């Protein structure tokens, strides 16, 4: 966390402003992890792209992870798995083959959570095999089978855009333009 001191014209002392650079996103791995060697022989880091789904398409975000987070992802995550990451936004700069400078926003990952393909389908099967318990009203609880619709087949095509989406709860029109909320006073 960086701290900047900024003088304010109508105050005699300096006030402190704290700048925070933190992001948390989740999406499906667009391809298998690329393992790269680090500066030390025992270290490695991974780069990967997350496919993040929006109501009108997908966005891809490049991520880089090192240390224990990289080891965890190397052991567990594969293409199509759902991964949630927390980290810092960073600006990556490099020169391409044509000699042009390229800049791209990415995420330096500090922490990652992973769930494999079909995890939701497995959860549904295990919940259906459990005996329903009684709630406070005395009626047996019903498991909502429509809640767990994702399956391995859905995840496989997730980054290709054939995942089902429901758009009725988003404040956007049919052209993708944001519709601001109306407040009446």
Automatic annotation (TrEMBL):
This is Single-stranded DNA-binding protein. The keyword Metal-binding does not apply. Keywords: DNA-binding. One of its GO terms (molecular function) is single-stranded DNA binding. InterPro entries: NA-bd_OB-fold, Primosome_PriB/ssb. The lineage of its organism: Bacteria, Bacillati, Bacillota, Clostridia, Lachnospirales. It holds the Pfam family SSB. It comes from Blautia obeum.
